[in-house]
Amino acid sequence: MEEFRLARPDEAGKIYSLLLEKAEWFQQRGIQQWDAEYIERNINENRILETIDDKKYYILKQDDQITAACILDDIDINRQDNDENSKFIQWLTSKGRGAGGRLIKFLIQHCKEQGIQRLRLDCQDHNQKLKHYYFDLGFKQVGRKPHKFFLDRYSCLMELEIKHQE
């Protein structure tokens, strides 16, 4: 059974472990997205707890396991044009085939119900496979910007226009 919902404080450690697992998965495959050192330096359970307390951390739970998690925020640190009609996905991590995509589809519907017009995210610009994954979910590339943390890389800025029925 699948359950989409906001994360609870007692799940912060599991989310952190899932992020580290994904970083290791990236490293084993030679994918430069983010690595364990970056996660350990920039994210910890307390930071995850703060985001959970702010009601911004969403999860997909299957058979009592968190299989996907991400932050849905009002602010995109890579853009200057943040507005109340946009939300930004950060730190999407998943394990298991299709879990990340199902969480994104849930968030699209959630945003639609909230009257949000755009869903934004970013990824490493050189990560073609991940960019195409997001293209397949309906996102379009709307920009490119030097990465804030990895100074030798660029971020691909992506956006999905949420269709609302008239």
Describe the structure.
- The chain is of the alpha+beta class.
- It has one domain: Gcn5-related N-acetyltransferase (GNAT) (Aminopeptidase, 3-Layer(aba) Sandwich).
- It is 34% helix and 31% strand.
- It contains five helices and seven strands, in the order E-H-H-H-E-E-E-H-E-H-E-E.
- A seven-stranded mixed β-sheet has the order 1-2-3-4-5-7-6.
- Helix 1 packs across helix 3.
- The mean pLDDT is 88.
Identify the notable features of this structure and list them briefly:
34% helix, 5 helices, alpha+beta, seven-stranded mixed β-sheet, Aminopeptidase, 166 residues
Give me a quick take on this structure.
The protein is an alpha+beta fold and 166 residues long. It has five helices and seven strands, in the order E-H-H-H-E-E-E-H-E-H-E-E. Helix 1 (12-28) crosses helix 3 (45-53).
Q: Tell me the domain tally.
A: 1
Q: And the CATH topology?
A: Aminopeptidase
- Major sheet details: 7 strands, mixed
Arrangement of strands in the largest sheet: 1-2-3-4-5-7-6
Architecture (CATH level 2) name: 3-Layer(aba) Sandwich
Structural class: alpha+beta
Radius of gyration: 15 Å
Outline the low-pLDDT stretches: none
CATH superfamily label:
Gcn5-related N-acetyltransferase (GNAT)
